[in-house]
Amino acid sequence: MEPNNHGHESRSESGFRWVLTNEERSNIAKILEIEEDTISHVKGNIMCRERIECSGCGKLSGLDDLVHNAVAMRVHSRDFILGVMAGGPQTRAYAHKMECSNCSHGYEGVFINWGGYMDD
Ligand SMILES: [Zn+2]
Hints:
By secondary structure, the protein is of the alpha+beta class. Helices cover about 25% and strands about 25% of the residues.
């Protein structure tokens, strides 16, 4: 099956680049209860698959959803997430089952944070 192209990402050798949008950055700041400036250097991350549309509300999956899920499901602590985001790229791949941070509808499949965060 050919993946849908939403025009937001480009294929790279190691995965799909999810470039952080201003809206996502703002959502992440709210979820982590931090100032947006704290993560102003975060450019996005490399995922195993393209963003998909939430079948509940139409929102595109994003890094804000990953953060929302990590916090909501207590996969990682806020401090850990903040440390990873502030500390730059890391190489461990994390598989996440993900739900929409906007309407809590589950996205289909599993999302893997493939190549860590973008550093360029
Ligand atoms: Zn949704």
